[in-house]
Every structure is written in C-alpha cells, then in structure tokens.
Amino acid sequence: MTIEWKEEEKIFHLYNGRVSYMIQLVHGKYLAHAYWGNQFQMMQPSSILQFKGRAFSPMNEPSDPRFSLDTLPQEFPAFGNGDFRTPAYRLQSPDGSTVTHFVYDSFEIMKGKPLIKGLPMTYVENTLEADTLVITMVDSMLGVGMNLYYTIYRDFDIITRSVSIENLGSGEVSIQQCMSMSVDFHNSKWDWLHLQGTWARERHIERRPLIHGVQSISSSRGASSHQHNPFLALLSKDATEDHGMVYGISLVYSGNFQASIEVDPFETTRISMGINPLNFSWLLNPGEIFQTPEALMVYSSEGLGGMSRTFHKIIRSRVCRGVYRDRTRPILINNWEATYFHFTEKKLKEIADVAKDLGIELFVLDDGWFGHRDNDKSSLGDWVVNGKKLPHGLKGLASYLNGLGMQFGLWVEPEMVSPDSDLYRNHSDWCLHVPGRNRTLSRNQLVLDLSREDVCNWLIETLTTLFQSASIRYVKWDMNRNMTEVGSALLPPERQQETSHRYMLGLYRILEVLTQRFPEILFESCSGGGGRFDLGMLYYMPQTWTSDDTDAVERLKIQYGTSMVYPALAMGAHVSDVPNHQVGRMTPLWMRCHVAMAANLGFELNIDKLSRDDKALVRQEIQFYHQIKNVVLFGDLYRLLSPFEGMDTAWMYVAENQEQAVVFYYKTLATPNPPFFRLKLRGLNPKLKYKINDNKRVYYGDELMKIGMSLPPIKTDFFSEIYYLKRDA
Asked: Do the Cβ atoms of 330 and 256 come closer than 8 Å?
C-alpha cells in the first residue's frame, strides 16, 4: 500500500497490490482522472489520456487547441469555466458570480487517515492501515482554497474521498453545491444499480442500462430515506454476482443527498455523490472551513458479491465502533406488535417470563411508556414515565427483568415533538418551522430543530438522565417522519438553507456524546424501519432496524437488497405474528425464524400466546442460532438465488477460515411436478471436506460448489431450510 507522485509523468498513483487509482496533472493546473481499477504494470501511464478539439467545446488553453475542460475526464469539475457537464461544486462570490477557476497548488502524502471533525467517517486504528493524499487547489481571485482528500486502505479495495473548502480571503463566499466525490469514466457501456423503495419495502434492487444525459437518485426529505439509499454502482454489462467489474459508491451521511450519473455525447460517464444541492447553501466567512461528508468507493473485479463483501468488511471493522462492534448481539423480544400502546406492567412481565423460558436474552419496551401516550397523538418530548402503565417505573421493570437474567432495552424518538406535549407548550419555537407558514404534521408530530445548540444540549442532558434512571442496555432510536417547512428560528435569512445540514451536524454531536457516555448500551437506529439505513448512522449505532415490514416473504427482498452494501451484523430482524400486520400473509413459524436468523435475531409478537409446539420450535431455533450466529454475523456473504428473479432465494455465509458455513434456502410458492434442483454453493475451500447438519455423509468443498447440494422435492408454500456446514476432521 502506498501513494506515489511520479514527477516525470505528473501522475499521482494510489495502490495497495490489488487496486490502483491514478490522477494526472495536465498543463500544471488541472486534475484529470486517469484510471481506477485492478492494479497492473505500466511503462507509460501518461499515455492514458487522449485529447482532441471538439466543436463548441471551449479552448481553456490557447496554446493547446486540443485541450478543453468540456472533454477532459476530471477529478473535481467546476461550474462555469467551460465544462458544461454536471459540476462537482459551485461557489458564489461576493459580487454574485458563480464562476470559479481552481488550479493545482500543492500536495501532501501522509500515513494513516485524518479525522473529519463533526462527521462520521471510516477510521484507522494505526497509521500503517492506510495512506492519505491531500491535493490543494486554489482560486486566487476568489481567495478560496480547496483540499481533496483521498485515502487508500492496505487491507480493503477501497478509496475514500472527501473535500474541504477554506475561505482564505477577506469577503464572504457562499457554497451552493459541493459533492464529496466525482469520477469521470472513459466509456459509457455500463449498467447502473441502486436501491429503491418506500416504507415497508425498502432497498429493492433496480438495475438499468445507462442512457445519454443525466440519471440520478436523491433525497430531500431530511433523511437518507426509504425511497433511495445513498449508494449506487456502475456494472460492466457482463457483471453478475461472481464476475465482472463493479464500482460501488456509498455516502457516509444520513441527510439529504444526491447521486448523479451523466453520459455525454462522447460516451464518457461522470458519477458524483454528496449533499443534495436542493435547498442547500453554506455561507463561508473569512477563515472558516466547510467539510463534506465522506464517500466510500469500492472497486470489484469479482462482481456484485465481491463489492458487497468489501463493503461488509470495512463497515464491520472501520465504520462501526464501540464495544458491540465485534460482538454478537443479544436475542431480543420487543413488545410493540404484541401490545402496541396498550400494555400494563403485568402484561410486560408475562411476555418476559415466557421469553426467558425460551432463551431470549433482552426485553425491549417500545412506544407508549412515557407521558400520557396511549396513541401517537401526544407526549413526544415528555420523556417521563407513565405511572399508570408502569407503577414501579423503568427501574422497577428493569430490576424485574434483571432478576430473570434478562437485559432491559427502551424505545425513544428523541428528534420529535408532539404539539400535545409539555415540551411544545413551553418551547413552540424549538421545532423546524418557517414563521407564518403552516406547521405540517406527519404521524401527528413535528421535528425538533437540531441545528440549534440549545435544543441539542437539552436533548443530551434529558436523555442522559433517562438512560441513567434504570439498567438500560439497549436503546432503539426512532425517527418517524421526514422534514417539512425546514427553517430555524435562530438562523439569519442568509443561512436558512444551512438548516438541513446543520441539523445533521447537531444530530451527530448528540450521538457522539451519548454513545461515549453510555458505551455499554447497544444503540439501534430506526426511522420507520429502514428510512435512515446508512453508513452515517452505523458509525454511532452498530445496527439498524431493517424495516417495519416483518413479513418473512417481503423480508427476503428487503434483506437481500440491503446486503448489497450492509452486513448481516448491521441488520435487525424480528419474528412477528401472523397474519402479518403489514401484508396479512400467513407464513409458518419456522420460515419466519429462518429469515430473521440471517441477521440479528429478535422477536416481536405475543409470545405468551404461542402453542406448546410453537414454543418448543422457538426454543429449538434459538439454540441453533447460537451455534451459527458467529458465522452469519461475521462471515463472508455469498448470494446464491435472488428473490427478485423467481420463487427461490438462497444466500450463505462462510467463516473467514472456511471451516464453517451456513446456507439459507427459501421457497415462497411450490411448483407442481418440479424438476430436480441442485443448489451450487460458493466461497468454500475446494480441498476441505464438509459435513452438512452433522450428517454422516461428507462432501468436498469443490463438489458442493461445482455439482451442488441436492434439495428435496418441496410440496408446500413458504418453505425454508438452513444447512450448517462444518469441516470434517
């Protein structure tokens, strides 16, 4: 792993033995993107770029009529200086102009990776893990400097990028747009893949060919959103799960974002990602610095599976933090779908008693425990225990659970406020709002203005008191609406468009303080399920509630799509009651268990109403989960059959030493008189011998990957099976 500056060729070369990233300095001023892909030997790197004058493309260098920024593959393109494609940034000077001319100034190569103040990021635990290149660009007329940060890791095929802009002059400068990354590819023969959806069907995979012009995904909802995840990938036309080139990019950010791809008439492809410029600006005073979120850029020559496994490894080890980063998580029971708002202390204890008997380790008290909250119309912001429901308080319930040998967890929605609350009656200006405009409700609530320091400080101290009030070992942090009327009572008119990003900075500050104060609490992020499933939240909270949709069949697509970027260790998955509360489907209990066991297993149903046989099944599946969970949560994922392509779904996890593997197979609808079917596995050691579910028969890994496992005829809908492979001694 190293970064080199090749003076003669004017090339920056980042490489780690597997991947290379090259930046070429052209005419001593302009940063051109030269290459990103497999590392290779090359005698003439300066020959990568080609130049030709094009009609209607401005000549930026009169001495070189072949050269134009309009056709140069750039690293970080500007607006208004001759490149008519999508810019990476746009600044407004005091005279109102948005024309800039940043040119190369200097560079620095450093060991390790610098911190990004106030924002989540990938990190290193020692300086030998990564090298960082910082390229400084300057617009001398505007008096602004720009630092482009590139980090390459030793053990991951990843480049991280971010940008900082510093006002070096004496006047104000307004940032209208600043992406975290931009790359120009030298051809357009790609497909692109992203994760789309809505509440209860998040992160469905969509793959399409590129077309000329701009195609994009974005969120302007104040969160990364259910609709579009802050991730996209470019795929070679022949790319599959196992083969072909894939470039995946994911933003370490939880707010408004935009990712765009533009194909120009000369078949070059520009891809960029960062904060959504819609309703965004940032006033930069003299001496101030603006920092973009970080983008993770993964290259894989082993198809989508290779890309996903790279994302999973760095997320598990260098995005997630804290004591739970490297731990399996307790199996939990959440009371929400069992009781909703209508519970008593007695009822909660009854659920806990049965849960403990079945082997469940953590009881989570969901919404309805505070204020006078008997429905979703009141009390958010009043984080005081409802004494009618819990006469012995949170401490009494926690003590009871601890006496059973169980841990206690709690649901909160701290970013919200109900108009019917003491908090709102006392501080009606603490919510996001625009004076004189309607305050639109969603789920009967408003959003607190976390761009305000006083609101953030109040939340930190209120939640500190709450988390200290009982033996709390898990917190589900929810956010159940998106933002409207985005304005702040404390920001001046010229800074109102900073509100959304300042909100995120405020949220990140709150999370940093609370997770450091309470390192023993396992925090799970939630936003109506998966509406804020992103790397920014995982930096503070090492798992996310994957979706409010707990139907086993729907979860196959949701969890399969989520796995494109996010590891099983980051996913919360629950076994719920039937008919399912979201779609009304009836699925067998074992299938519901098997789907949830492919992530962090939990339960969310009236478990004390289960039959004796069902309780025995749950107990058996929990015991089995303890055997396989280390492989599932920390192993390498191989997706075998896609739920988006048929009735069969399969995926498997392989331990790092390849001595164990767990295969999950699901069939949604049975087929009459079906053909014989063999499931070919992946990721095994071809020379090792494996037993399956402790059967006496032994198979070579090579045999299981090339010939496959023979599956029995299936004569029932909603079938599932788990196969546990162990090395034969």
From this structure: no
